[in-house]
Amino acid sequence: MKITDIRLQQLRHKLEPPFHAAWDPTPRKIFDATIVFVETDAGITGIGSGDTMDGFAGHEHLFIGKDPRAIEQHVRTIETINFHSGRFWPLEVALWDIIGKAAGQPVAQFFGGASRRIPAYASTGSLQSASERVESAHAIAERGFQALKIRIDRNDIPGGLAAVKAVREAMGDRLDIMVDLNQSWRMAGDIQPALEYSQVRRIVEQLKELDVFWVEEPLPYADAVGLRRLREETGVRIAAGEMHPSPSELLRYLEDDVLDVYQMDVVLAVGMSRARTLAEVSHLKNRKFTPHSWTNGIGVLANLHVALGVGAGTYFEFPFDPPQWTPHRRDFMLANPVDIDDEGYLNLPDRPGLGIELDEAAIERWTI
Fold it and tell me: Are 123 and 319 in contact (CB under 8 A)?
């Protein structure tokens, strides 16, 4: 089997009303998505998505004519392109989709087949008052989720802490609560200084009193010493790594025992194969791997297959913050949006490959 063509299709979905994220001061009025199609001479087409793929054009010849199942070769090639351009891991996703389809198996089987389902946590992202977040938490619990994540805007730390406190008081132990400080990566143009260690330490101590499940990305990636100090000095689980692009640096994190929870996104950070390696090392060191998955439904599926393959836990991130962010809005390109079951679990798709079924009418409507 040989790769015969690689196509990129760009989609742009208009958002009404706009989504105002805690990590982005500019309300998002559109949701862009790029779908990667990898075609083969066996009639199998692999599908990937999750990042823009900007800058990939002109590199197709490095893959065409090659066997899509030579995955390590392709991963190394993608890494050389990433060094000069962007992050082109959606291409690896499409290659794994081909491998699964050719074998008639879900991709998770090739990553270890450890589990067929995993509980999801509702990952919220919009800016809301304490009362609004409590209302949202009730809806999330009624939907079946066992946990939710609240993001704190660094420009309004008191308001964020008040929201976490209000949700804890309203929900009791009905929901586990994660908190994301979003200090490890930035949107383009955001050059505000990160929070200082002493300030973060005080925030984490307050969150400890509210029995949070973990505090996510409380410091920049470069401050590995600070991240380790936080977990040692406060006793609170520290999670990070969602956008960290360097497997070698993440291995150093593991060697130095920097984090409790490793969150490398297989689409936006290190790719599926490298995420598997890092996940297995984290398990050997009795640490957790549960990937970031704030992307579209195809990216969610890519992360889900790796997570189920290696046996991630305790929860899987599920972007969910109605009414602004729902599965139908996030997965507008899919015939059936990725969603949890009645018990709050995400289940392994029963289709081969990643289990992707595109909505052709939606793709035609939103292609730019």
Answer: yes
Q: Which structure tokens are listed for 100?
A: 């699964």
Residue range 285-325, pLDDT digits in tens: 999 999 999 999 999 999 999 999 999 999 999 999 988 89
Residues 350/123, Cβ–Cβ less than 8 Å: no
Tokens of residue 301, six digits: 């599926």
Q: How far apart are the C-alpha atoms of 5 and 39, rounded to whole Å?
A: 5
- Cα-based distances in Å from 192 to 26, 96, 216, 221, 226: 15, 39, 19, 15, 19
Q: How many helices (H) and strands (E) does the chain have?
A: 11, 12
Tokens of 359: 């909505």
Residues 152 and 141: their CA atoms lie apart, in Å, by 20
Helix pair angle (197-209, 157-171), 10° resolution: 20
Q: Taking the model in full, what pTM does it have?
A: 0.97
Both structure tokens of 84: 């000069």
Residue type, 87: R
Which sign does the torsion angle of CA 318, 324, 327, 330 carry? negative
